[in-house]
């Protein structure tokens, strides 16, 4: 798993690219505060090499809790900036700091 951040000088957004290796998966989405935890707004596209990838424009100077939804199972990114406990889910969420 990887997260790439590209800060734009002319805009107040950061292009964030999420890459998830999941050769056996059928559906992968990134869900979080930035898309109201809606999988349809965070779908990642399958690449020929078996990875899933997607880029999103997110406002700068913010923090977002997120997780990957891989075929119905929630997974944290191992390269997240930090983790935050979520009482509702009873587990930690990954945190993205922009």
TrEMBL record:
<dbReference type="InterPro" id="IPR032640">
    <property type="entry name" value="AMPK1_CBM"/>
</dbReference>
<dbReference type="InterPro" id="IPR013783">
    <property type="entry name" value="Ig-like_fold"/>
</dbReference>
<feature type="domain" description="AMP-activated protein kinase glycogen-binding">
    <location>
        <begin position="23"/>
        <end position="96"/>
    </location>
</feature>
<protein>
    <submittedName>
        <fullName>Isoamylase early set domain-containing protein</fullName>
    </submittedName>
</protein>
<dbReference type="InterPro" id="IPR014756">
    <property type="entry name" value="Ig_E-set"/>
</dbReference>
<dbReference type="Pfam" id="PF16561">
    <property type="entry name" value="AMPK1_CBM"/>
</dbReference>
């Amino acid at each position: 798993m990887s997260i790439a951040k590209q800060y734009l000088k002319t805009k107040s957004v950061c292009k964030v690219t999420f890459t998830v290796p999941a050769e056996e998966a059928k559906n992968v989405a990134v869900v979080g505060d930035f898309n109201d935890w809606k999988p349809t707004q965070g779908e990642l596209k399958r690449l020929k090499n078996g990875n899933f990838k997607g880029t999103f424009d997110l406002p700068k100077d913010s923090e977002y809790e997120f997780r990957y939804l891989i075929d119905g199972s929630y997974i944290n990114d191992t390269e997240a900036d930090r983790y935050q406990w979520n009482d509702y889910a009873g587990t930690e969420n990954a945190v993205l700091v922009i």
